[in-house]
Amino acid sequence: MLLYTRELVAPRPKQGLLRFRNKPPGPTYRERLRSSFAHSSIPGMQHVFGERHLWQRCLWLTVVLGAGLTGFSLYTVLRHRHSEQLLVSLIETTQLPVYHIDFPAVAICPWSHVNWERALPALHRFLPRNPDAELRETFRMLLVVLDLTSFSNFQRAEDLAKKNGTGLGFLKMKQLMNFLAYRCDELFVSDSCVFDETPYDCCKLFVPEQTEKGQCLVFNSLISEHSRKKQLTNKFYPYKLSTAGEESGLKFTINASYTFVKSGEPLPFGMNLMIKEPRQWSNQMMYHLYPDTENFVAVHPMVTETSPNTYEMSPSKRRCYFDNEKNPNFQDSSLTYNRENCLVMCLHLVVLKTCNCSTPVFLPPIETIRECGIVDAACLGSNADIFSYVKMGEQDKYINDSRRGHFCDCPDNCNSRQYKMTLNVRKLDYPKNSTETLIKAQIYYGQRVMTKIITKLKYTNLDLLANFGGIISLYIGASVMSFIELSIVLGKLLRVFVKDAYAKVKRVC
């Protein structure tokens, strides 16, 4: 049995419930901040809460706030520079092999649109039986006008307005001109076509196709229906070429026979040579091929691409359209968008607006629209200055131009090709007593490599992040871990503040 002294015996409590003392107060917010930033990775913060004297703490607080404000003000400048979305074009390479792109399309367009050996068959085919002398004369005059008519000299159509053309109002101009156009076997010398050092039948390489110069014979194009069918059956079409230099590309010989030209015609028999992209309707840049000459055309392609990081920009600010974007001014056409195709579609809409008809013999067809006929010759001739001149932007504000012209809003395509050509011509030497009149031509790459230019944003989101990190590190000495640490400290303080506020509310209630 153990005995305890009186001092070791606890006094008996009074009657009723025991009353416990309140929980001792926790550390203050200042003490929490001081303990949190005592070993902080953010330079200066440990001094703000760790220095003993008030003036030292205020000095360090001023330094930290000044550095922070300076860093974030510079970030604002960077953010403004990024929001401007400036574009810069750079030469990515000058050694891109030419086999990365299709060989350009080559179009042969005779200066004369009418093979006069088919003038009489055309009269019997397109005119009613037993036409009178006046109708025959009007038809002959129509052929004279069509012989050299294009959008560059539509003024010749005004001559038809002086005649009574109501008797020929039923004629379909496209059918008539394509019937009168030169055919492959009439132009090319048999077995004269060679591509990539391989002989071909010329009429299998060159197919009829509509251009701004009327019907031409085109190689390696994807515009005509015949060419698109060829692409379905031949996986190597459009053709590519990996070599360069003379004898390596396309070669052909044209029989420049004067029997096809109208007697008394001052213009000799010659050709227009057009180099364009396979999916391009036409090209304004052309070369003339004269009889008794051998022509060497060296093609120097250049590829221009726009980086996908510009997708976020609007086409109006980027000033170009990607293939999957639709230009509102380029509607109702099966053609691939590029600036040249947009211009010819715009021109056709101008013809439609001016004369209320279409000209599918020269321009991409517009469905359900009446074709211009001889009755529209006066309208087409009197407005030739509108069709032959394209105005850009707001040039009327700055240029005093008497020509009417037409406006077209056609930005470039973001991914395009440009061809620079150099033409060398020499006179053909025939054997003695030769009666031939020929035109020879070679089209080939000038070099096996080409230049590629890429356009991209000058400042991307990655550049913004990298520059921001550099500025913050320079002025604050902070890193990603510093921001995470600061977020954790503020989160803890917020949690304690909410917990204390909840306890006070509960105590009051």
Q: Which key phrases capture this entry?
A:
alpha+beta, five-stranded antiparallel sheet, 509 residues, eight-stranded mixed sheet, single chain, 20% strand, 34% helix
Describe the protein in words.
There is one protein chain. With 509 residues, the protein is α+β, with helices and mostly antiparallel strands. It has a domain at 32-84 and 470-508. 34% of the residues lie in helices and 20% in strands. The chain has helices at residues 29-36, 45-50, 54-83, 119-126, 133-148, 158-161, 173-180, 184-187, 202-205, 225-233, 315-318, 339-355, 377-382, 384-387, 461-475, 480-508, and strands at 87-97, 105-110, 193-195, 198-200, 206-211, 214-219, 250-255, 271-276, 286-289, 293-306, 320-321, 390-391, 406-407, 412-413, 416-427, 438-445, 449-457. The strands form four sheets. Strands 1, 3, 4, 7, 10, 15, 16 and 17 form an eight-stranded mixed sheet that branches. It has a five-stranded antiparallel sheet with strand order 5-6-2-8-9. The chain has a two-stranded parallel sheet with strand order 11-14. A hairpin with a 2-residue loop joins strand 5 (206-211) and strand 6 (214-219). Helix 3 (54-83) runs antiparallel to helix 15. The longest helix is centred in the first third of the chain and has 30 residues, at 54-83.
Write the layout of secondary structure elements.
Elements: H1 29-36, H2 45-50, H3 54-83, E1 87-97, E2 105-110, H4 119-126, H5 133-148, H6 158-161, H7 173-180, H8 184-187, E3 193-195, E4 198-200, H9 202-205, E5 206-211, E6 214-219, H10 225-233, E7 250-255, E8 271-276, E9 286-289, E10 293-306, H11 315-318, E11 320-321, H12 339-355, H13 377-382, H14 384-387, E12 390-391, E13 406-407, E14 412-413, E15 416-427, E16 438-445, E17 449-457, H15 461-475, H16 480-508
Parallel strand pairs: 10-16, 10-17, 11-14, 12-13
Antiparallel strand pairs: 1-17, 2-6, 2-8, 3-4, 3-7, 5-6, 7-16, 8-9, 10-15
Helix pairs in contact: 3-15
